[in-house]
Amino acid sequence: MKKLLCMLMAAAACAACAPKEPPVSLIFDTDMAPDYDDVGALAVLHALADSGEARILATVSSNRLETTVPCIDVINTYFGREEIPLGAPKGEAVSQDTWHKGLRWTSELPARFPHRTGSASQAEDAVAVYRRALAGEPDTSVVVVTVGFFTNLRDLLLSGPDSLSELTGRELVERKVKRLVSMAGHFPEGLEFNVMMDAPAAAYVMEHWPSPVILSGFEIGEKIITGRRTAAEGPADSPVAEAYRMSLPQDNPAGRNSWDQSAVLVAVRGPEPGFGLEHGTLTVDPSDSTDRWTPDPSGRHARLTFRQSPEQIAEQIESLMMHRPVCGR
Questions:
Q1: Of the candidates 307, 255, 291, which has an alpha carbon nearest to the alpha carbon of residue 183?
Q2: Which residue of 17, 108, 115, 144 lies most exposed, with the fewest beta carbons within 10 A?
Q3: Structural contact between residues 51 and 14, judged by C-beta atoms closer than 8 angstroms
């Protein structure tokens, strides 16, 4: 009865804002620990799912830190989607915690909020989660958004046929994935965290990913500042607001850069009207982790450019970050 009531409430809440297009089927890949914009990004995704714009197929960590999956699970559970499949890398991968020395949201969120999975080690292999999710979807229908390291995507491309699909990883991506949207790259060239933490994986994915790629570069999220209103006015029981309340005083009370939220917003709603696209090719040098952008109208990648002001986009993102679950926890 409670589940039915929640479904009716959700339908009523979204009736006036029902999207004209079917929801975007999406897999979210995050490093969920070094920075807390990942928390904001997953909140944005759940808000878009509640509005009927997105359908979350899976949430996976590219970071082996044990608290990553519990933090993802906390947010999924808060928004009433504890059934979303969770994954983490099982081979060689980066383990990176937050730099905060005071209250560390990476340990506080699992300690304070309900979740089911106790550690990244307890989660399923991220590659298996990807393969199962992709195999079950129609051709050219899935958007992958990665706001962390490229480890899982490289491992997915290199995976072989198994009980989940007779296709290789590359074949599965080529058949099922509509596009990849990634928070990655320092344009026109330089060092960017998500790339440099596993540069060989980033280089491989940029060279071999078979579907279109949209890149939200460092300079995009750097200018979009959010979090102050979420921390000040967000629900008292929200793990999203709590992450910002714990972290902003240690960084900048005026707000935090929205690198990951920008990528999620574009993955679901597309670039317009906030952004334009410049086509080209991003190459990564594994020897020194640098990336370099070469503009080219026929390039296999595209990077975001601003059309609206960062402040306009920040207002949109902040409102989504403050979204309350339709039915509570």
A1: 291
A2: 17
A3: yes
The candidate with the shortest Cα–Cα distance to 192, out of 223, 158, 157, 216, is 216
Q: What pTM was estimated for this model as a whole?
A: 0.93
d(CA 20, CA 23): 9
Three-state SS letters, 22-66: CCEEEEEEECCCCCCHHHHHHHHHHHHHHCCCEEEEEEEECCCCC
pLDDT tens-digit map of 46-75: 999 999 999 999 999 999 999 999 999 999
Supply the DSSP string of 225-243, one letter for each residue. EE-HHHHHHS-TT-HHHHH
Bridge partner list, 250:
none
Q: Kind of pairing, strands 256-257 and 225-226? A: antiparallel
Give the span between the Cα atoms of 140 and 126, in whole angstroms: 21
For residue 260, give every residue at least 6 positions away whose Cβ sits within 8 Å of its Cβ, in sequence order, or none: 30, 35, 37, 38, 40, 41, 147, 183, 221
Residue 327's pLDDT is what?
Answer: 61
Rounded distance between C-alpha atoms, residue 243 and residue 199, angstroms? 28
Is residue 31 a contact partner of residue 194, using CB atoms and an 8 Å limit?
yes
Of all residues in the chain, what percent carry a pLDDT higher than 90?
A: 91
List pLDDT tens digits, range 173-189: 999 999 999 999 999 99
Largest CA distance in the chain: 58
**Nearest CA-CA partner of 257 in 310, 320, 304, 308:** 310
pLDDT in tens, 249-276: 999 999 999 999 999 999 999 999 999 9
Q: Output DSSP code: residue 287.
A: T
Q: Return the DSSP state at 282.
A: E
Q: How far apart are CA 207 and CA 299, in angstroms?
A: 12
Q: Where are the alpha helices (DSSP H) in the chain?
A: 2-15, 37-50, 68-78, 105-112, 126-135, 151-158, 169-176, 193-196, 199-208, 218-221, 228-233, 239-247, 259-269, 310-321
